[in-house]
Amino acid sequence: MHLSIITISKDDPNGLSDTLTSTQDIGSIEQIVVLGGDHSRISVDIAKPFNCTSIQQLDQGISAAFNLGLAQATGLGVMFLNGGDILLEPALISHALDWLDQHPDIDILLYDAIFDDALTGPYRYRAQGFYGPRLNRIGLGMPGSHQAMVVRRSSFAQVGAFNPEYQVAMDYDWLCRWHKISVSTRCVYSVDFPPVVQVDGKGISISREPLCLYECFWVLRRNGLFKGRYAVDYLNRLLRFCTRYTMMKLRLNSLVAKIKQWKHQ
């Protein structure tokens, strides 16, 4: 019984090295690396000393890279660490495997992460706390950092792979699809555990947040979720982004940083 960790990396050999270093010499893991970009040959050389399976991919997007990794995965659960993300808690592996093995109703485990934000510095990114079917606050966005989620691999057979139509919101789309088909016997669980991963805050979904919000809107629409509470939550999310964006345009970055630090205390 093991956990598959899928890492995608594009033109960031140093970040890839940091991630692979953090996952080495840990039992019960299968490390899969999907490499792309103009310097994939350098990344291949970086990955060689590590115990991992490397796949080179023509640059077809993040979804395609995730799906290539999934096609190789054989673990009970799957975790997605992007190049530059650091696994902080090796004990997560045995903990997640035990939970998935002993609780066959759970499809998704949510853990906390340390988010290394370019504006505020590191803060604890707390997963939304619940145990039960469906993600009823999905309109607000991701229920936690996708890098700090462990997903039962067999659930991809029911929900399907990542949708290549989305450049940055493919994980959100997958969760919305899971939410739509989940019934009372399938659950998501927020775990009380120390932060398991340090997330690189320079990720594409952060630097391209307007695109992310645009795609999330269409995810909700196409999945029939842009209604009622989901729509209200999404509009709340959009209003908060517009407020933050306006404040930063007014060069109130220090105030934005303080608000974010207060929010995540």
Task: State the end-to-end distance.
Answer: 36 Å
Overall number of domains: 2
- Specify the biggest β-sheet: 8 strands, mixed
Calculate Rg over CA atoms: 18 Å
Strand order of the largest sheet: 3-2-1-4-10-6-11-9
Low-confidence stretches: none
Number of strands: 12
User: Which term fits the overall shape?
Assistant: globular
Instruction: Please give the oligomerization state of what you see.
Output: single chain
Tell me the fraction of residues in β-strands, as a range.
15-25%
Helix content: 40-55%
Q: Which sequence of SSEs, written as H and E, runs from N to C?
A: EHEHEHEEHEEEEEHHEEHHHH
Query: What's the total helix number?
Result: 10
Mean pLDDT: 88
Q: Helix- and strand-based class?
A: alpha/beta
